[in-house]
Amino acid sequence: MSTPVHPTRIVRKMTVTKICDYTPQIRELFISCTEPKDFEFRAGQFVMLHVPTGEAKPALRAYSIASTDQQRDGFRLVFKAVEGGIASRYVWGLKEGAVLDFTGPFGRVFFKEPPTPQVVFLNTGSGVSQHFSFIESNLRKHPELRYRLLFGVRHQSDIYYESELQRLKAELPNFEYQYVLSRADDSWKGLRGYVQNHIDAFDYKSIDTTFYLCGNGAMIKDVKAKLSAEGFDMTRVLAEAFD
Length: 243
Ligand SMILES: Cc1cc2nc3c(=O)[nH]c(=O)nc-3n(C[C@H](O)[C@H](O)[C@H](O)COP(=O)(O)OP(=O)(O)OC[C@H]3O[C@@H](n4cnc5c(N)ncnc54)[C@H](O)[C@@H]3O)c2cc1C
Hints:
This protein is of the alpha/beta class and about 240 residues long.
């Protein structure tokens, strides 16, 4: 009798049904299961994209799922272009209808239950994807929580996902988000610098809080160092670094 293949080892064929280019560096793919027909994951997890290399083995790259885990026939992925990157070149060459190979789901960063009254998401670049999935997947279960999200990008022209965040805000009475720009020009009226410079505003010393960090490793390191030095309960800090 043959040993059953673990579900995460099955190479899944999935079809790109829609492509959204938000900025020249940010592309979202809407992906639908082709074979097998369904795909189960938990919010916070990622998939491995198999990038053809022209050689026997593909290059494998991780991408966090950006959509609700209640959907069982597909998901959304947000890509940030890396100059000269193998997967970046492949993804930016795709057209709607392309069939991609994936394995997964992988990852152990999950939404912590029971949640604290305040949940803070800090992300940079395409790290918003994991957080968007957490919020979309939990908004009906935990609509009462105080959700706060800081989204770090460089310039005004790098801002994306505003309509998606507005949609969440319309559904959640206590959800606030702000972009933090590290290289804004003089016309920018919002927050400046790095996301880690703005966390004191969340009053996490008096409100029970869980932090979710995703994206740039340096941001994650800085936030963890600050919270740890303050004696914060580090089991309430959940992080996924993309680099
Ligand atoms: C758990 C996990 C989840 C991830 N989720 C996402 C996601 O949702 N969206 C997303 O866009 N990326 C995500 N990443 C990063 C992604 O897996 C790739 O590393 C990224 O897309 C670059 O791949 P590439 O093949 O284009 O570049 P490569 O060919 O691997 O690298 C090209 C060059 O760029 C450098 N480089 C690689 N990655 C980065 C980076 N992030 N920033 C700056 N320089 C880099 C390399 O050192 C190399 O010099 C995730 C990574 C992890 C570990």
